[in-house]
Amino acid sequence: MRSMRARVVAVLLVGGAAIATSQWLLAQQGSFDAWAEGVANDMVRASPMQATTTQYFTGTEQDALDRQLTPISKAYRAERVAHATRVLAELSRFDRGGLSPQQRVTAAGIEWTASNAVAADAFADFNFVFNQFTGLHVRLVNFLSQSHPIRNRRDIENYLARLDLVAAQMDEGIAIAKDAAERGFLMPTFITKSSLGQLEQFLAGAPAKNVLVASLDERAGRVVDLPAAERAAFVAAAEKTVSSAVIPAFSRVQAMLQAQLPRTNDNAGLCWLPGGDKAYVNALRRFTTTDYTPQQIHDIGLKEVARIEAEMDKLFKTLGYTTGTINERYTKLNLDSQPPANPDPRPGLIAEYSRMLRDAEQRAKLIFDITPAAPVEVRREPPFTEKTAAAHYSSPSRDRTRPGIFWAPLPGPDFNIIGMRTLVYHEGVPGHHFQIATQQETESLPRYRRDGLFGGGSAYAEGWGLYAEQLAAENNWYEGDLKGRLGQLNGELFRARRLVVDTGLHAMKWTRQQAIDYGISAQEVERYVMNPGQACAYKIGQLKILEIRAKAKQALGSQFDIRKFHNVVLQTGNVSLAVLERVIDDWIASQQSAR
């Protein structure tokens, strides 16, 4: 009898503990969700331009943010580092074992984002304020002319309010750049000249033709119920601000860079700057989400270059291109494929990009069963940035008033004809459009994850873009198009060379010319110089996605479904590569349990 009573008491105690534990878990999970949402809200409030791009809030709060620019001051940066430090301390109080799988992914993303914010602050001087790729002058112009919405009168009023803030922020940028220069942080000569060329183009012509005025005029013309006289008044106000404040501010930047030019040199990499070796290790970690050393990444690049060039050599010989380096043969094949110079081929090329995009959407139905509802289209890169921009994608707006956009630079006179399809697959379908728009539309993710607030950086996103290119080749999308297949391989070769060149420039004291001689265009080399580490994200990310796909195939055998694999990867959203691998491991285990 005593034994039975003891067992009953034990069961009751265990049951009570289980109930208590369950209640504790629910309380912990609810507390975490509320906390994470608060962290996300604080992040977006501190970045008004991001708030506008995502339309994160509603009502008066969103409207107030839509009238502000994201600060760039040292005080603002210090405030954000302090916030990230507090976030890490608060996160450490949660028992991750008590969180759901989705919450653990969120926690890892918050930790990654906050840790990077703290670690990167020591290297702020390496973020040159007025470089021609991500410089303040480029960001402000592109944001106002492309991302700030113009849907109604209030949007236009907010646009004008922001336009009034541009000159003051440019002056802040000048002060930061001068301060850094005094401590030896100057852009290389060739970068400084490129930025001066951009500024010269911006300052040329009448204010009425300036992109900040002309783009407003063009977009305001599509606002319903906006009388012509009211539209003209808004445009006149923008022209006045640009003429009296913005152009003088851009002229002050131009004067500063011209004064700095004699002090610059052609040293290209971070390794030439004080503390540059540590800054580069930090950059590689942020962009690849790995702890690979520069030498390890360099060696991966060399191996991949050799493999891809051998495959391309065989295809070139099939087409009769038997002599010269891979680059020389690719250039010759591409030149032989150019459209007539007259009439201007650009409208036809944009139309061909669009045709390829629609074709990709049909082909993708066989290997994707979840695709974005948001549409995607191709547009030509605006003239202000066309000469220096790389092809890129901008996400659709939440209200679908702005589609996903693949921006195609077409400066000419020659065009990458045989690489067109691959570019569509990378930037559009099934590349960045599927990746970004699917993440935005995945209702099972918290809002902040859908908008990528705690993402893993470029390795996931650019790795997916390069994976999408290879996916097209694996599924015979280039069948009957040997030139297009060479375009795909050349795109992959390009990303492999990036590993070699980026590490060469920033860790091994390569010169700009060495990088060009290795097979990378001057424009691309300059991009790597100003954005160290980012060029390594593509190939490292692609290799990791292929690795975890191979692991899933081996583990699941005939049960492996490529569509389900893609669903898991895309609906997880942007995370670090280590987190993505853990998610796939959990998915494999769940599939095996369901057998």
Describe this structure in words.
The structure is a single chain. The protein is mainly α and 595 residues long. It folds into two domains: 23-274, no CATH class; 281-593, no CATH class. 67% of the residues lie in helices and 2% in strands. Strands 1-3-2 form a three-stranded mixed β-sheet. α6 (136-147) packs parallel to α9 and α8 (189-203) packs antiparallel against α10 (228-260). The longest helix is centred in the first third of the chain and has 44 residues, at 2-45. The chain is globular and about 70 Å long. The two termini are 44 Å apart. 41% of the residues are buried. Residues 1-16 have low confidence and may be disordered.
Q: What is the topology?
A:
Elements: H1 2-45, H2 48-54, H3 59-65, H4 74-91, H5 101-120, H6 136-147, H7 153-182, H8 189-203, H9 211-220, H10 228-260, H11 276-288, H12 294-318, H13 326-336, H14 346-364, E1 376-380, H15 383-386, E2 392-394, E3 404-408, H16 420-427, H17 432-441, H18 447-450, H19 458-474, H20 482-507, H21 512-517, H22 522-530, H23 537-556, H24 562-572, H25 577-593
Parallel strand pairs: 1-3
Antiparallel strand pairs: 2-3
Helix pairs in contact: 1-5, 4-5, 6-7, 6-9, 7-10, 8-10, 9-10, 12-20, 14-16, 16-19, 16-20, 19-20, 19-23, 23-25, 24-25
User: Mean pLDDT, as a whole number?
Assistant: 93
Give the spatial strand order of the biggest sheet.
1-3-2
> Shape from CA axes?
globular
Q: What's the N-to-C terminus distance?
A: 44 Å
**Unreliable stretches:** 1-16
Structural class: mainly alpha
| Residues in helix, % | 55-70%
Written as H for each helix and E for each strand, in order along the chain, the element string is HHHHHHHHHHHHHHEHEEHHHHHHHHHH
> Any idea what the radius of gyration is?
26 Å
Q: Report the strand count.
A: 3
In total, the number of domains comes to 2
Strand content: under 5%
What is the makeup of the main sheet? 3 strands, mixed
SS field, number of helical segments: 25
